[in-house]
Amino acid sequence: MLKDGFESFVPDEKSSDGAAQWFALRVKSRYEKIVSTIAQNKGFEQFLPLYQCRRRWSDRLKSVELPLFPGYLFCRLDAQHRLPLLTIPGVLHFVGIGKAPFPIEDAEIAAIQAAIQSGLSTEPWPFLELGQRVRLNAGPLAGLEGILIGTSKQDRLVVSVNLLKRSVAVTIERDWAVPVELNEPRIVMPARRTPAGSSADL
After folding, report:
1. Burial 105-137 (b: 16+ CB within 10 A, else e)
2. C-alpha–C-alpha distance, residues 196 and 11, integer Å
3. How does strand 155-161 pair with strand 145-150?
4. How far apart are alpha carbons 106 and 21 in whole angstroms?
5. In the chain, what is the straight-line distance between the N-terminal and C-terminal CA atoms, in Å?
6. Sequence-separated contacts (24+) of 147-155 with Cβ below 8 Å
7. 70 and 153 assigned to the same domain
8. pLDDT tens-digit profile of 71-126?
């Protein structure tokens, strides 16, 4: 069973060579930016994806910057040298399987980074199990793959971090997308959505 806690790390085939990989670090609510800054000051490569959200403050609307993955920070490191991160105030543990932290695919982190850097509107999104997987062949995210979803007003491409069972939706134009599998010419809408609160870190 996938868990986001561990006591010790048992090297596997992916990490036995000591190569740096991306891992998800579970942190206390509202500690994401603090942990990100301290981790960077300690010399770790870290990634805290943020998005702009409009919140009402008394009689006015204010734009605030919030984490796309609340309670998580991504760090690239050799998992055997993770102790300095675990001593940072607000850090809970690494996301992993059983007692071992489990790495996230580089392609998944790269997809999130591309969505952030594109300048297009992004927002948290429930993890999707169903839906047509597409590739964008136009626009600032050309080459990116994800799941196409639609609303009455606009289309979005959903890119996911499977380990966390979390996703991010970025606004796109429908004509940017083509099916990844050529034998499926029609874009299929997802039949259902996983509730936003669901997570694999049990």
Report:
1. eeebbebbebbbebebebebbbbbeebbbbbbe
2. 32
3. antiparallel
4. 8
5. 8
6. 147/190, 148/177, 148/187, 149/189, 149/190, 150/174, 150/189
7. no
8. 999 999 999 999 999 999 999 999 998 778 999 999 999 999 999 999 898 988 87
CATH of the domain at 170: 2.30.30
CA angle, corner 175, sides to 68 and 162, nearest 5?
35
> Same structural domain for residues 12 and 83?
yes
Residue 117 has which token pair?
């850097």
Weakly modelled stretches of the chain, pLDDT under 50: 1-16, 130, 182-202
- What pTM does this model have? 0.70
| Domain co-membership, 96 together with 154 | no
Q: Among 75, 104, 133, where does a domain finish?
A: 104
The owner of tokens 């049990």 is: 202
Instruction: Sort strands 100-101 and 72-77 into parallel, antiparallel or unpaired.
Output: unpaired
The number of C-alpha atoms within 13 Å of 59 and in the hemisphere containing its C-beta is 0
